[in-house]
Write a structure and sequence with these properties.
It is found in: Cytoplasm. Helix content is 0%, strand content 44%. The strands form three sheets. A four-stranded antiparallel β-sheet has the order 3-4-8-7, with no helix packed on it. Strands 6-5-9-10 form a four-stranded antiparallel β-sheet, with no helix packed on it. A two-stranded antiparallel sheet has the order 1-2.
């Protein structure tokens, strides 16, 4: 706000979060049945944008079988005690960017 005497004007600042990009892609993982499989990728910046992990077309959430971690720009997925049914494509999406292994 700028005020001079009996006149005043006001403006607003709006900020948009720049889109994060994937700078370290997922790598393929080979594991034995019953072991954990760990997938990691790194983004260009910390972001509040929605990031999502998928096994095939199924979105994953943290639970007793899947652990999803975010540490700064590093995003990790741990599939606990994998079985043959866990074989397939793991995908990570953030904004318009995708990586798969």
């Amino acid at each position: 706000t700028c005020a001079t005497g009996d006149q005043q004007t006001t403006a607003t600042v709006h900020l948009k979060e720049p889109a994060a990009t994937i700078v370290e892609m997922l790598k393929d993982v080979t594991s034995y049945e019953g072991e954990d499989a760990v997938f990691e990728c790194r983004l260009s910046r910390e972001t509040a944008q929605d990031a999502q992990w998928f096994l095939g077309d199924v979105p994953l959430q943290s639970n007793e079988m899947n652990e999803i971690r975010v540490q700064g720009t590093r995003h990790s997925l741990i599939l606990r005690k994998v079985t043959l049914e866990d074989c397939g494509s793991i995908t990570f999406k953030v904004g318009q960017h995708t990586t798969a292994a």
